[in-house]
Structure formats: C-alpha cells, structure tokens
Automatic annotation (TrEMBL):
Pfam families: ABC_tran, DrrA1-3_C
Source superkingdom: Bacteria
GO biological process terms on file: response to antibiotic
Descriptive protein name: ABC transporter
Domain ABC transporter positions: 2-237
Length: 327
C-alpha cells in the first residue's frame, strides 16, 4: 500500500536549512494498522504531508496504493483519505451538508453522497445529527465526523494525524473502537500518528519510530519492547550478598544495566521469565538465597526513552524547534 524510498524534505527559511525528513524508507502492507511515533518536531507531519501529496519531497520516491507520488498525485489522492490534526469542518455548517459537500467534491452524485453519508454516519454513531451545526458537536463527535469525511470516497488507505488528541479517555476509547470496526468492516489500511503510547501498543500491528527526521526503529510493539529495552528484573537478597548476586545476574545472556541498591539487584534481560530459572540455579550454586523477585515487562515508554533519550511526555511539552536538526 505504501512504499517509500529515501523520502526527504528540506525546508529553507531565512538562511536556515532544516532537514525535517532525511530520507526515510516506509513499507506498509494492505490491511495493516501502522503507528508512526516520534517526539515533537521529529518529522511525522512532514512525512504524512508528503505521502498525501500535500508537500513535495525534495528527494526520494514513493508509490501509494500503486500510484507514483510524483507522477500521479491525482491517482494517489483518489485512493487515500487524510484526517488532519485539526479536522476540516466549518463551524457554521450542518453535519449533513458537510458530508454531502465532501461526497460531491469527490465526484459522487447527490444520491451517492447521501447513501454513502448515511452508511458512514450509522457506522460512526452520528446518525440523527444531520441538522446539527458542527460547532455544537462534542469533541468525539467532531473527530468521528472528520473520519466520515475522510472515508466518503471509500479509500483503501487512510492517514490519521493524531486522531485522538484532545479527547477525554472515554471518547478516545470510543473513537478507537470505531477505527477498529471500520478496519474490520471496510478492510482499510491505516497509517496514523499518535502521542498515546498505550494506544499504539494495544492497537497497532506495527510501529515506526521517527526521531530527527530518521526512522530509528520499527517492528511490532512486542518486538520493539523485547529488542530495545528487555524486561526489568528486581531481585532481593541479603545485603552482603548483593554485589555477588549482581555479578551472577550480569553473566546472564543479554543482561545489562545491572545496579545494586542495598539488598536489591536490578538489571535488564531480553526475557525475564526465561532468565529466571538459570539465575535461580546460579544463585543456589553460590549459596545465595533469593528473598524476592519481580519481572517488569517494558512499556513503549521505555522503548521511546531508550531510542530518543526522552519520554513522550517530555516530548509533548518540548517546543518543536528544540529537537530540530538544523544543518
Ligand atoms: N514549513 C516549514 N518551514 C520550516 N521548517 C519547517 C516547516 N514545517 C516543518 N518544519 C520543521 O521541520 C521539523 C519537523 O516538523 P514536523 O511538523 O514534521 O514534526 P512532527 O513530528 O509532526 O511534530 P509535532 O508532533 O509537533 O506535530 C521541525 O523542526 C519543524 O520546525
């Protein structure tokens, strides 16, 4: 569905050059739900805008839904839906008018637009709101309307920029349920950015992490967690045995970040559950009884911290310019 090679965008303003995206390769298969994560200013929106033909790449190439991004931008536009961060609804327009207008803009007949609109409003829990001004909708309803507008022409690939930002947790969960259902019922491929790592973790088939304009990691949420951070393990032993226990833990396959605090030894291993029997045997052989044990699976936050040196929470509050690479 998406195949991009060396896609890059350089901005030049007032004598300063910013390499916002530095030659990224992206592959997304039909039917996949892929999350695109990165701190503020990492290059997510710039990449999305290039893939959706809104911004011309300065280098590289891509095919979207089989159409060449540079040679056939119109073909690309016909095949994709783009739900932008701020949405595109007019506050004084009525829901039904917005949907019909969008359908007509994509070349549907009036009857076709109404039919498709009715289908989408039903699927997105917007039925009965046709006569409401869009400014009177709740945040969640407005986001669902944005999605309906993005899907009116039955695209096979939909780009979402921060679909759930600004919604309360309940509306976020509700919106995700709708996105999941749309995917199941309409078989659409989804490529989205989000700041919510818990969402990305539970919903995305695959995740790409971008930082400073470069893809720094990609994989399933589980493989990213396993490869980047490993599990965190904390064992309790007698305080005077802790240095020896730390040495033994450090010899486990893939063990790293071994630290000792009083009677606790902390370390990371690729898989805590499989490392435990070996650790127990080795401690036993050294005559060190283990008093307690805890294995913590890493979160995507740990992955993010390892890869970018920041948590996404820092990233959310940091101004975009701070992380930009200025050539
Ligand atoms: N039109 C522009 N002119 C100059 N610099 C730009 C322009 N658009 C984006 N940039 C810069 O390119 C870099 C990447 O910006 P981009 O908006 O793609 O990041 P992002 O990952 O989407 O961030 P956010 O999470 O804040 O939306 C930033 O340093 C930004 O300041």
């Amino acid at each position: 569905m998406i195949r991009a090679r060396g896609l890059a965008r350089r901005f030049t303003a007032r004598g300063r050059t910013v390499d916002a995206v530095k030659g990224v390769d992206i592959d997304v298969a039909e039917g996949e739900l892929v999350g695109f994560l990165g701190p503020n200013g990492a290059g997510k929106t710039t990449t999305l805008r290039m893939l959706t033909t809104l911004l011309r790449p300065t280098a590289g190439e891509a095919t979207i839904g089989g159409c060449d991004l540079r040679k056939d931008p119109l073909g690309v536009r016909k095949r994709i839906g783009y739900v932008a961060q701020g949405g595109g609804t007019h506050p004084e327009c009525r829901v039904g008018e917005e949907i019909e207008l969008q359908g007509r803009l994509y070349g549907l007949s009036k009857a076709g637009a109404l039919r498709r609109g009715a289908e989408l409003t039903e699927q997105l829990d917007l039925a009965g709101l046709d006569h409401r001004l869009t400014k009177t909708l709740s945040g969640g309803q407005r986001r669902r309307l944005d999605i309906a507008l993005g899907l009116i022409h039955e695209p096979k690939l939909v780009f979402f920029d921060e679909p759930t930002t600004g919604l309360d947790p309940q509306s976020r969960a509700n919106l995700w349920e709708h996105i999941r259902r749309l995917r199941a019922e309409q078989g659409v491929t989804l490529f989205l950015t989000t700041h919510y790592l818990d969402e990305a973790d539970s919903l995305c088939d695959r995740i790409l992490v971008i930082d400073n304009g470069e893809i720094v990691a990609e994989g399933t949420p589980d493989s990213l967690k396993a490869s980047v951070s490993g599990d965190g393990v904390v064992i309790g032993v007698a305080e005077d045995s802790a240095p020896a226990a730390a040495e033994i833990a450090g010899r486990l396959d893939g063990a790293h970040e071994v630290t000792v605090t009083e009677d606790l030894v902390r370390f990371r291993v690729p898989r805590g559950d499989t490392a435990m029997p070996e650790l127990l045997r080795a401690l036993d052989a050294a005559g060190i009884p283990m008093r307690s044990m805890q294995v913590q699976r890493p979160t995507l936050d740990d992955v993010f911290l390892t890869l970018t040196g920041r948590t996404l929470r820092d990233a959310e509050t940091a101004p975009a310019g701070e992380v930009a690479h200025v050539a």
